[in-house]
Amino acid sequence: MRYLSCLIFCGAILSATPALADDTCSTSTGDVVLAARTPQVDLYDAAMGKRVMTMDADKFPDCAPILGRAANMMLEVSVGGTKYWVPPHMVKYRFAGSLPAICRNLAMGSNETKAGSTRGLGEGCPKPGGK
Question: What CATH number does residue 47 fall under?
């Protein structure tokens, strides 16, 4: 009986959560930074650049369009008319299209092996030449 009541209660919570997430920035199209995730957000001058400013979460803009993505996963956004790069772990974001392929050698040095945590890595990447 406890299992059944938990199942009903937990199911209601899980079904309500995506609806809340879908409402955030629903009018924004494309890739968008939804909000700050941490109490402060570091802003960088380039994707591999130096930190130029730390902004409090309440001052960071919500629903800011993502202007660019770097290979190191940094996100370019405009804050107060100036372009900055932010680390993805400091913000909540949504990508509208498909994610870029993660291209690197997998376990055992092969782009063909897919097991455990490497599943999906290497898909959509150029195949290495030779054998």
Answer: 2.30.30
